[in-house]
Amino acid sequence: MSDSHFVYKLSVIRKLAFSFLEEEMARAGVKDLPPSFGDILYIVHTKGPVAVKDIAAHSYKDKSTVSTIIHQLEKKGYVQKEPDPDDGRKVRVTLTETAATHMESMARISAGLKEKLFQDMSREERDILFLLMDKIERNLKRS
């Protein structure tokens, strides 16, 4: 593969991964969430109640993007906002019961994706892949 196809290849992998997630989520009865919201729900599930700025820091998304996603998740009934007991001007985000019931399925689906991604790779190959991806990430952050 030529170096010029690298970013294209990454976008194909992302598209295939998201298609897998969408199909599996629909099978599990979660039809109204794009896969890109999964990391936000996972952060709220594991860290919640949590401030929007902390969700942004953990998700590598900017605060305005996270606020928009939280608003959409709130409209769909997956999260709720509550006042921060330490600072009444701030809010914290928590999962609703609806979201909590889907977290086990979503964890299973995520594990299925990881299994599919790495099914033909040895541990050594995966370690090399992650090492190289880390180098690329550092290169881009330096630019």
UniProtKB/TrEMBL annotation:
SMART domains: HTH_MARR. Residues 3-138 form the HTH marR-type domain. This is DNA-binding transcriptional regulator, MarR family. One of its GO terms (molecular function) is DNA-binding transcription factor activity. Keywords: DNA-binding, Transcription, Transcription regulation. It comes from the Bacteria. It holds the Pfam family MarR. The keyword DNA-binding applies. The keyword DNA-binding applies. PANTHER family: TRANSCRIPTIONAL REGULATOR, MARR, TRANSCRIPTIONAL REPRESSOR OF EMRAB OPERON.
